Amino acid sequence: MLLVAAPQETTSLQSLRAALEEMGIAQIEVSSASFEEAPKESIIVDRSGLKKPFTLDALLKKFPLEKQTEGQVAWLEKLPVQSRTKADLIIAVGSDFAKALPEEEYGSQSDDLSPETFPLVTP
Questions:
Q1: What DSSP string describes 80-114?
Q2: What's the DSSP call for residue 117?
Q3: Which of 22, 24, 61, 101 has the maximum number of C-beta atoms within 10 A of its C-beta?
Q4: What confidence score (pLDDT) does residue 61 get?
Q5: C-alpha Rg value of the chain to the nearest Å
Q6: Could you tell me the mean pLDDT of each successive run of 10 residues in the chain, 123 residues long?
Q7: Which of 40, 42, 33 shows the shortest CA–CA distance to 84?
Q8: By the 8 A CB rule, do 67 and 44 touch?
Q9: β-strand pairing of 89-93 with 43-46
Q10: Which one, of 97, 39, 38, lies nearest residue 64 by Cα?
Q11: Which run of H or E residues covers position 30?
Q12: Quick check: 1 and 87 in contact, CB under 8 A?
């Protein structure tokens, strides 16, 4: 799984990563995106060919995500080739994500975002 967010959305990205780890999703790669501005709505792109329908369904029910196809998401081309080709699911964290997550469940906006605790893979 690949998580992508603009730099201003790193707190939401960290909260999402923690929640995914709690769900038992172990292989999570994080990449900063070169968005001029964060997308308004968070999206999920299924690249698994529907080989992971239960994971996809659980994510769509738990998080404020809109399902899109690769053809609908032009910025995928800007991601590192290795990241976008090996990821079965790609989640882009939009500006709506922080508002939709209850702080008591996913952490506060003042979480430590140092590179030691939250490494980013850059393009």
A1: -HHHHHH-SEEEEE-TTHHHHS-HHHH--TT----
A2: T
A3: 101
A4: 92
A5: 13
A6: 83 87 89 67 86 89 88 73 74 80 49 44 45
A7: 33
A8: yes
A9: antiparallel
A10: 97
A11: strand 29-32
A12: yes
